[in-house]
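Below is one such record:
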Amino acid sequence: MSKHEKQSSILPPLQRKIVLHLAKTGPQTINETVKKIKHSYKPSWTAFNSLEEKGIVRKGKMKEYRGREYPLYWLTEEGVIAALIEGASPTDLLTKTKEVYPNNQNLQYGLEMAPHLNRDIFRILLTTFQSKGKLEPVDLGTMFFTQMETDTTLEQMVKTVETMKKYPKEYQRFKELLSRMQEHFDKLAKIL
């Protein structure tokens, strides 16, 4: 892990490892995860509890093993954004998110936009999600404008807009937001 990655991490190392593993593999029991990440059970169990308290992971379906049921854990919507901050692959997350949250178009839209966004934008998305409990198209539009203030090229903006077009409802809302903002900028330009 590079110095920059250490500074940008929002989770302790074991929790980060668990989140990145779940982002890649999908829902798993604690025991399955412990075996895959090659860590001890007790600290991993504590890490899972902490992640659950933070709202990063949640129990989902149950898995039966030898006559007993064990909960499968996966990322919450907030956890998906946290995984992006931690460096998870947006492609892996999108695949798993479509399985776990098949009706959450906003989250899927955000994940498709993720490769076009600066990693720091994910922190803003997480803060927005934590304060509002959800992401709305206007939030993603705001992130787009924030992204434009970075070193984004015209080619990157074109790819971003192409991605937006895959989601007609969100794309229309974005166009409406852009139109309203243009009106405000025009008014401001007259004042200046």
